[in-house]
Amino acid sequence: MNSPSSRPNLLRRMRDGGTVIGSWLNSGSPVLAELMASCGFDFLCVDAEHSAVDLPETQRLFQAIRSGCPTCASLVRLHGVDYAFVKRYLDAGADGVIAPLVRSTAEARLLVQACKYPPDGMRGIGFCRANGYGARVEDEIRRANDEVLVAVQIEHADAIAAIDEILAVPGIDAAFIGPYDLTASMGIPAQFTHPDYVTARAKVLAACARHKIVPGIHAVPSDPEAALVAIAEGYRFVAYSLDITMVATACRQGLARIRGS
Q: Which CATH superfamily is domain 4-259 in?
């Protein structure tokens, strides 16, 4: 495990006004993780919510990301706001977490408490990959409280209704829109041009500006245009597609051209 000074600081880049581009890892393949990191992504996020990847596999994916590119941040989308699992993913070396389906200030506060060491939170201290297996515990406590990215996923109509209250919780760094779940909760599944969804996105962007929170979104298609549109709208924390979709898209397009269809 690299020293604290050599770990990527995605949060600092975003706080400085930068835009970061990443992707999701759903396949569980360390080879793909290492390869994608080497391609220049700013972050890669292991999807522990919608994949079969478990905690030991996640740590191996973090190691593969670091091998592919030391400056590529390792994130994880949690399966929920679960204190016990949040700290284990952070101990495994996550540079940040994205919590799904956050709908209330209570959930946002619990997330922050789980991510921060005392006195800022209640994260427990143990020898682990994040602190060099015990070699630099004090340094890691200081680094983690300053640099670990804490993001809430805005993907329910309830979250839109409470967006200002959620983003006002101290310690929340980013708000990340989940397009599919958000539209589904609004009764307009996958209707991404629907006026109600467009309005909801605008509300999130406006609330992020008011609370100095970094706005993020998943540009799901393997089409760079979707990510470019999101960036033009003001999103600075953008996930471009996901590993399995990129592979599938490349295979289908290649075969279609070869077969002339």
A: Phosphoenolpyruvate-binding domains (3.20.20.60)
- Cα–chain-centroid distance for residue 72? 13
Locate the domains of the chain by residue range.
4-259
Residue 50 annotated as catalytic: yes
Of the residues 50, 79, 211, 218, only one is catalytic, namely 50
Neighbours of 127 (CB within 10 A): 12
If you average pLDDT over every residue of the chain, what do you get?
A: 96
Residue 6 has pLDDT above 60, yes or no: yes
pTM recorded for the entire structure = 0.95
pLDDT in tens, 57-115: 999 999 999 999 999 999 999 999 999 999 999 999 999 999 999 999 999 999 999 99
